[in-house]
Design a protein that fits this description.
This protein is of the alpha+beta class. 28% of the residues lie in helices and 31% in strands. It has two domains: 124 residues, no CATH class; 77 residues, no CATH class. The protein has seven helices and ten strands. The strands form two sheets. It has a five-stranded antiparallel β-sheet, with helices on one face. Strand 2 and strand 3 form a beta hairpin.
Length: 226
């Protein structure tokens, strides 16, 4: 597969968003598309220079964890359990760093959950990526908008994975209007909005305000050392 090199930046996102997307908290990526409140990023995971865990964002204290950028518990959640982090060889350290650096970032992010960090980089992006000129047709955007009754209207291009996620929302309902429009409706709870953002949905100002309060509370939480 051919690729093209694009300028990029280093980013840090909220741990809860990283967990939902299955990506590292800290990564380098290029902007492929941008709206007023969101960006579509393509890139790769990176080791956090502030010695925080790539998966959960907590400050690392164990010497072996500091070398590879992942805490023991999170290392297990990413596929390696019961690994002894003492006396790691240089080869083992590089291989374990690869767990983070092999994670691909390829989705929309609300700007409110991104911090742009110092440093510039370049990113190899597949030439046939759907967001690039000449690529395949870009899929319909996944959008969530607030509607009366503390609910939200969900519009997206159905696929098995995303449909299954939407169906997991509590009190969700499928609607088929007489005019032929079809969409899902769900309660606009903080947890459901958080999940939608993690699944790549763009949210409107009302839901965005709720998301801002959630992000701030998560960001201000006291860091628990591991």
């Amino acid at each position: 597969m051919t690729s093209m090199e694009l300028p990029g930046n280093f980013y840090r996102t909220r741990p809860v968003v990283a967990k939902d997307k299955g990506i590292p908290v800290y990564f380098r990526a290029a902007i492929l598309k941008e709206s007023a409140k969101a960006v579509y990023l393509y890139g790769y995971g990176e080791i956090d220079p502030e010695i925080r865990c790539s998966r959960c964002g907590r400050i690392l204290t164990h010497p072996g964890s500091k070398l590879i950028g992942i805490g023991p518990e999170c290392l297990g959640n990413w596929g390696l359990r019961d690994l002894v982090l003492d006396n790691l060889s240089p080869e083992q350290i590089e291989a374990l760093k690869g767990i983070t650096r092999d994670k691909v970032i390829d989705s929309w992010f609300p700007k409110s959950v991104l911090d742009v960090c110092e440093g510039e980089t370049t990113i190899q992006v597949p030439s046939n990526h759907k967001c690039l000129s000449g690529g395949t047709r870009e899929a319909q955007k996944s959008v969530a908008t607030a509607i009366p009754g503390n609910r939200m209207k969900l519009q997206f291009e159905p696929n098995q994975d995303l449909l299954g996620k939407v169906k997991s929302l509590p009190n969700r309902t499928f609607v088929a209007d007489k005019d032929g429009s079809k969409y899902w409706v769900a309660v606009a709870s903080p947890a459901s909005i958080q999940s939608l953002v993690g699944w790549g949905f763009q949210i409107d100002d009302t839901l965005h305000g709720i998301m801002e309060s959630i992000s701030k509370s998560v960001h201000d939480m006291k860091v628990i050392e591991i």
